[in-house]
Design brief:
Strand order of the largest sheet: 3-2-1-4-5-6-7-8
Structural class: alpha/beta
Number of domains: 2
Oligomer: single chain
CATH superfamily of the largest domain: NAD(P)-binding Rossmann-like Domain
Number of strands: 8
Length: 271
């Protein structure tokens, strides 16, 4: 992008995006960050040329950003979004990474002429391995969509959808997905302890195994089912364990119910 980027919220996700942009060559002078937390603001100011202000009211009135990226918590949006209505113009696109806030929600505050992209990233963005799903309203131009795609791609993969309603299931699957994987590591360690392993060894085995399997999945061309089969010897120990995990009350049944519950909650929040 050639213009200015206004980043509203320099916390974990906003900070991860910012680090990705700077690593890919975005000039610090192109970025203005709104960050009320004094400690975090001071940390951001250590990046030479980066402009940081404490409140939306402190953003220079003459600033005409190419992108306004909204990276504050969903519960703070009601107080934050109206401050940036003055930035609405054909040359500005608003990009939200807040869960549960629909395109229509932002249009209520910003007006029907605002170009708005709603996106759902996930926390592996902090290590450049996230995935973000995005949806644009009719006011977003092809060029603006390309800019948003490039900004989101700085922290991982990007997918676009035309049907915004799918973002509820996206939130359930990839937005919450890292928590489910972390729970797997917790549960695997706990099961190891229950089988007699020392706590530190069980936790180490679980952490490294889950992380290593994820890395193998990332690099391997085979689908997950084939990778699973490759680990499973006929009549062996893994096959015996999988008979439990893949049984009628096993993981698939649990995940189906969990994703349905999370999807329903996302619909409640965005409604």
């Amino acid at each position: 992008m050639d213009g200015t980027l206004l980043l509203v919220g320099g916390g974990k996700m906003g900070g991860a995006l910012l680090a990705g942009w700077l690593a890919r060559g975005l000039k610090p002078a192109q970025v203005v960050v709104v960050e009320p937390d004094q400690a975090r603001a001071a940390e951001l100011r250590r990046t030479a040329g980066l402009r940081v202000v404490a409140r939306g009211e402190d953003v220079p009135a003459a600033l005409a950003p190419e992108v306004v990226l909204l990276a504050v918590k969903p519960q703070a949006m009601d107080a934050v979004v109206p401050l940036y209505r003055r930035a609405v113009s054909p040359g500005t696109v608003f990009l939200s990474i807040a869960a549960g806030k629909a395109l229509a929600y932002f249009a209520r505050y910003l007006g029907s002429d605002a170009a708005i992209v709603r996106s759902m990233p996930n926390t592996p963005a902090a290590v450049g391995r996230g995935i973000t799903v995005a949806c644009a309203n009719a006011k977003v131009s092809a060029a603006q969509r390309a800019v948003c795609d490039d900004l989101l791609r700085a922290v991982g993969e990007v997918a676009w959808i035309a049907d915004e309603a799918l973002l509820d299931a996206v939130t359930a699957v990839s937005g919450g997905g890292p928590a489910y994987v972390f729970l797997l590591a917790e549960s695997l360690a706990a099961a190891g302890i229950a089988s007699g392993l020392p706590k530190d060894l069980a936790e180490r085995l679980a952490r490294v195994t889950v992380a290593g399997a994820g890395e193998l999945l990332h690099h391997a061309p085979e689908p997950p089912a084939v990778l699973r089969q490759n680990v499973t010897s006929p009549q062996g120990t893994t096959e015996r364990a999988l008979a439990v995990l893949m049984g009628p009350d096993g993981w698939q049944s649990l995940l189906d119910r969990a994703i349905a519950a999370a999807t329903a909650r996302s619909k409640e929040l965005s409604g």
